[in-house]
Amino acid sequence: MLQKAPRRTRERILELSLRLFNEFGEPNITTTVIAEEMNISPGNLYYHFRNKDDIVNSIFVQFEAEINRILTVPDGRRSNIEDVWLYLHLMFELIWRYRFFYRDLNDLLSRNRKLELHFKQILAHKIKVAKQLCEDLRSEKSLEASDTAIDAMATNMVVVATYWLSYEYVRNPRKYSEQQSMADALARGCYQVLSQIGPYLRNETSLLFQKLSEEYLKKLK
Questions:
Q1: In whole angstroms, what is the distance from residue 13 CA to residue 77 CA?
Q2: Cα angle: 93, vertex 96, 102; to 5 degrees
Q3: pLDDT digits 0-9 by tens, 67-120
Q4: What's the pLDDT tens digit per position in 152-190?
Q5: What pLDDT score does 221 carry?
Q6: Which GO molecular function terms does the record list (predicted)?
Q7: Given CB 3.0 to 4.6 Å as the disulfide criterion, which of 47, 53, 98, 155 pairs with 63?
């Protein structure tokens, strides 16, 4: 039991820090605030984490493991438009769960070398997966586009997904933390990302995309 106690405290610190970073922004939260919210002494907190960057890096390890699981495209069959739709849903849900990384991205990367290097890898991985999804659709005759167009689509999809929450925050900062408002915002994000490939879709896939889009847009009205 004595060996488990530090681990429980460490996990609680990470859970609380993630919530505070998400709600108030990482630059606005200090280790003192975290210790006060935890009702522990600063010394107890420093027993588990050397400083705030150590906390941020530990949260990032969790985030990176989860996003790498999402970015693993199943082998054995080519992806269809519904797979792309599901992939985007899962991606945006994860981005929301760790939203402070995306909202405070430029500030974090400017002073954290580890995050800078790893986030570059994540972006490259996202683009690779987006490109593979588009190429799968093309192989199934569901998408008509050149290699150059697919490269541009994959990059645009990742750019929109990466900075969508920043756009929504600027658009309506007072409602940024309201559950329904952000659920709608994430839905809009999924639609905006997928709309990048809409003009290139063909045949039944184009019709299915139109149907899914209409159903989505009705929910947002």
A1: 42
A2: 130
A3: 999 888 767 678 888 888 888 989 999 999 999 999 889 899 999 999 999 999
A4: 999 999 999 999 988 988 888 877 777 778 888 888 898
A5: 65
A6: DNA binding
A7: 98
The pLDDT value recorded for residue 187 is: 85
* CA distances from residue 129 to 22, 55, 114, 119, 125 in whole angstroms, order as listed: 27, 29, 23, 15, 6
pTM of the full structure: 0.87
Domains of the chain: residue spans and CATH: 1-49 (1.10.10.60), 51-217 (1.10.357.10)
Q: Which DSSP string do the residues of 67-132 spell out, in sequence order? A: HHHHT-PPSSS---HHHHHHHHHHHHHHHHHTHHHHHTHHHHHHH-HHHHHHHHHHHHHHHHHHHH
- What H or E segment, with its residue span, contains residue 1? none
Which positions ≥6 away from 107 have C-beta within 8 Å? 26, 27
Q: What is the mean pLDDT of residues 53-58?
A: 96
Q: CB–CB of 150/131 below 8 Å?
A: yes
Torsion-angle region of 187 (φ positive above 0: left; ψ -120 to 50: alpha; else: beta): alpha
Q: How many CB atoms lie within 10 A of CB 15?
A: 11
How wide is the angle at C-alpha 183 spanned by C-alphas 174 and 211, nearest 5°? 135
DSSP 142: S
Helix (H) or strand (E) holding 10: helix 4-24
For residue 176, the 8-state DSSP code is T
Q: Which amino acid is at 27?
A: P
